[in-house]
Amino acid sequence: MDKKQTKAAAAHEKTSAGKPEETSKAEKTSAAEKPSVEEEKPKDDAQKALEQAQEELKKQKELLLRTAAEYDNYRKRTEREKTAVYADATSAAVVEFLPVADNLERALEQKDCSAEDLRKGVEMVNSQLKSALQKLGVMEMGEVGEVFNPDLHNAVSHVDDENAGENTIAQVFQKGYKIGDKVVRHAMVQVAN
User: pTM of this prediction?
Assistant: First the structure.
């Protein structure tokens, strides 16, 4: 039995000694076909960087679209608000002038009235009109004796007058009006000296 065991052990050593060589050849062949760990790492890093860049691009695109939509909504909203403010301002102005219009209609409905009554009525309506303008912040400008200002007055003629000062208004042909610092209508005047 000793001889049998010795022969079997020797045969086993030959078989196992041959296998490691075959395995190492197979490993060498498969190692040549597969990229090394160092070569895979840069490809993975590049792929991750590309995916991150694409994700960031997607986020920036969404942000741009949202911003553009918000701007469009803002533009439309401000346009509506401008229209509403204009309509409200116009409405407020009309409300102030409606009593004046009503009184003019009443004056015209009078069939039998004297010139004196008509004059009183026109004076009352004129007073009411000035009051309405004052409530709206409209101020008259262009009085005789004021210094001529080309920003406020429109000189349509010139006269030499010894009684008037230099560059003063001698006569007003049409009153001017302003709201705050904004001139609504320039006063048409005659300038002296």
Answer: 0.57
